[in-house]
Structure formats: C-alpha cells, structure tokens
Specification:
Blueprint (H helix, E strand, L loop, with lengths): L1 E7 L8 E7 L6 E10 L2 H7 L18 E8 L11 E4 L2 E3 L5 H4 L10 E2 L19 E5 L4 E2 L6 H4 L5 H11 L7 E5 L3 H12 L3 E6 L5 H7 L3 E4 L3 H5 L5 E6 L8 H4 L2 E9 L11 H5 L4 E4 L5 H14 L5 E5 L3 H9 L6 E5 L6
Helix pairs in contact: 4-5, 4-10
This protein binds NADP nicotinamide-adenine-dinucleotide phosphate and zinc ion.
C-alpha cells in the first residue's frame, strides 16, 4: 500500500478538501496510473451530496470517474500497457468477467461490477476512491487507450460524458436521415450534440437556457429549441426518431415524449433521484418507448475513444486547479460551465 494525495468530502454538507488516501500496490494484472486530468461529472455532485437513494454515499468520498493519466507501473501479467502510456479510466474498475453481461461486453450491467468510487473495494476493504487524486491502481481490463492526437484535458470527460451519450445513440441507430433531440446542454448534452452530428443525424438541441443557442449551433445542432417555450416545442410534435434526455434535475418528460414519432424512443441518461410521472397515453399513442442507459461497456468505450481520435472530437473544457473544485460545483449547479470542468491534477502538489 502507498499513500496518495486526494480531495475528499467528509459529509453531504462538507466542502471537498485536501486529504491523503491509501492505494494498493499493483497486483499482477494491475496498472498504476499518475492522474493528469479528471473531469467533473454531475454524478460527482449527486454522490458527494448523497442525493441518490439507490446508491447511498459512504464518507469520506473521493469522487471522479473521468480520468486521464500516464502509466507509472504495471503488474507482471499486464500485456496491454507499458510505463509511459497515456491511458484513461471511466466509471468502472472491475467486474466478474464471467457472467453473460460481461461476456457480451456489458460490464456496466454485471451484478458484480465495481464502480470507480463509492463502491465496495474488494482489495482494501472500505469503498473505492476516484480520480480527484494523484494516482490510481486499476485492473488492466478497465484501462483504456487514449488517441495521441487529442488534448488529454479535453479527453477526460469522454470517459463518462462521452460514452454515456455515444452508447445509447449507437444502440438506437442514430444515423443519417434520423431526427434526434438532445435535452439539456451540459457536460453530457454537449457531447450528445457532437456525436449526433458526427453520426449524420438532424440534431435539435433542447435547452432551458436561452443563452446557449449560439453554442448549440457551433457544437453541431441544426436547430435550437427553448424547452420552456410551448409554441416552439409544439412545432416539433410527433417528429423525432430519438431523444436523449441528459437533464440532472426534476423536469417534465411528457412534453418530450409527445415530440416522438411512431416507434420513437426517449432514452434517459440524466439521473435525478425523484421518480418521473409518465403519462401512459403519450407512450400508447404512437407505440413510443421510454428507456434508460448506463455509461457503456469497456470495448464500446474504446470504440468511442477511437472514433473521437478519428473525428477529432473532444469535450469543450474549462481547466481548473483542484483548489477551485468547490467553486466549480456551485457553478455547475448554475449551468455556468462551457461545458465540462477538467481538473489539472498537477495542482494537487501545490
Ligand atoms: P450538467 O453538466 O450539470 O448538465 C445538466 C444540464 O441539465 C444543464 O446544463 C441544464 O441544461 C439542464 N438542467 C439542469 N437543471 C435543469 C432543470 N431544473 N430543468 C431543466 N433543465 C435543467 O450535468 P451532466 O454531468 O451532463 O450530467 C447530467 C445527468 O446525467 C446527471 O444527473 C448525471 O448524474 C447523469 N449521468 C448519468 C450517466 C449514466 O450513465 N446514465 C452518466 C453520467 C451522468 P440547459 O441549461 O441546456 O437546460
Ligand atoms: Zn459521470
């Protein structure tokens, strides 16, 4: 075991503060990574503040699951990575590798998977600690290769925001000729717009923030709709093949279900804790469907990273030192970031 600098929160109402945590020495199959950048996902806020009833927070919590870093050590059995490689780690650090989900490449749905933080740590006991830290040790099966042509600070958010929007769009066949909506222009939403554009769809960005129109068009949207404007919404009734809802707070999804065409699908990736009220008639008329999606499997995450390398896709980031993380949380809650904070982890040793 060795010590690593980190930022943790001691309770749901405590600010994040400097801390020292323990990491395991790499086992035979482990990769040790010096963390360069870690994105701030809204899920970090949900969990630091214990907002998810289904996944109660264990304190202290070290959040962070959008990790990019350099390999500093490898176990004897590691074959895919060498010291010096630029690598990534997302929301998953382990799974049983034997169940039908794992064998199908859906490690995120494995009954025995381990999330990167706030999840039982089978090596050290307690819970796993995430990427707001100088170092992490991860089984090589959960380490991703980062395309060398992309800016590492802007790649970090791809490890969660990227795969969480890429995966459902692939699953639901977003492609040329399809009309696709992305609801909420935050960290996930702005990646959703970029991917839908890259897949050739006609992209409509739905936002509650009038000030985001110009950005939405720059990011690749063909149209912008202010979601609180009922007239603007009505113009799109019954016309969408697919809508991806990335909103982090309670909101009315029925207005979006009404915009789907026959057999259209609305997929939720945004994760407010409060249950949604769904008007059944909205689904029945038009045989529409409502579903959810959780990040993506490891092979698909690598596919997404390679796609981003080929198409030069990264997140729009504001790079901050770790000392500004509490301020960044407040700004994220006000939608005051374009469009993802990426923490420069070198700041930890200041
Ligand atoms: P974010 O950057 O804060 O973006 C959320 C966006 O939702 C905001 O930018 C805002 O967009 C919109 N919004 C916020 N409050 C709203 C309200 N009261 N009414 C309407 N719109 C509102 O968050 P994120 O990091 O993208 O994460 C979004 C959600 O996805 C979170 O709940 C997170 O936990 C979840 N998540 C899920 C997965 C998964 O695997 N399913 C993975 C990662 C994250 P506008 O200003 O454009 O309206
Ligand atoms: Zn996330």
């Amino acid at each position: 075991m060795y010590q690593a600098k980190a930022y943790s929160a001691a309770s749901a109402v405590s600010p994040l503060a400097a801390d020292v945590i323990v990491r395991r020495e790499p086992t035979a199959s482990d990769v040790q990574i010096k963390i360069l950048y870690c994105g701030i996902c809204h899920s970090d806020i949900h969990q630091v503040r214990n907002e998810w009833s289904g996944l109660p927070t264990v304190y202290p919590i070290v959040p962070g699951h959008e990790i990019v870093g350099k390999v500093t050590g490898v176990g004897a059995a590691v074959t895919q990575y060498q010291v010096g490689d630029l690598v990534g780690v997302g929301c998953l650090v382990d799974s049983d590798a034997t169940c039908p989900e794992c064998r199908a490449g859906f490690e995120q749905f494995c009954q025995n998977m381990t999330l990167t933080y706030n999840f039982p740590d089978k090596h050290l006991g307690g819970v796993t600690y995430g990427g707001y830290s100088e170092s992490i040790v991860v089984d090589e099966r959960f380490v991703l290769r980062i395309p060398s042509n992309l800016d590492p600070a802007a790649v970090a958010p791809l490890l969660c925001a990227g795969i969480t929007t890429y995966s459902p769009m692939r699953h639901w066949g977003v492609s040329k000729g399809k009309k696709v909506g992305v609801v909420g222009l935050g960290g996930l939403g702005h990646m959703g717009v970029k991917f839908a554009r890259a897949f050739g769809a006609h992209v409509v960005a739905f936002s509650s923030s009038p000030g985001k129109k110009e950005d939405a068009m720059r990011l690749g949207a063909d149209e912008f709709v202010l979601s609180r404007n009922a007239d603007e919404m009505q113009k799109h009734a019954g016309s969408f093949d697919f809508i991806l809802d990335t909103v982090s707070a309670d909101h009315d999804i029925n207005t979006f279900i009404g915009l789907l065409r026959r057999d259209g699908n609305l997929t939720l990736v945004g994760a407010p804790d409060k249950p949604f009220a769904v008007y059944g008639f909205g689904l029945i008329f038009g045989r529409r469907s409502l579903s959810g999606s959780l990040i993506g499997g490891i092979a698909e995450t690598q596919e997404m990273l390679n796609f981003c390398g080929e198409h030069n896709i990264v997140s729009d980031v504001e790079v901050i030192p770790i000392q500004k993380v509490n301020e960044a949380y407040e700004r994220l809650l006000k939608s005051d970031v374009k469009y993802r904070f990426s923490i420069d982890m070198a700041s930890l040793s200041r």
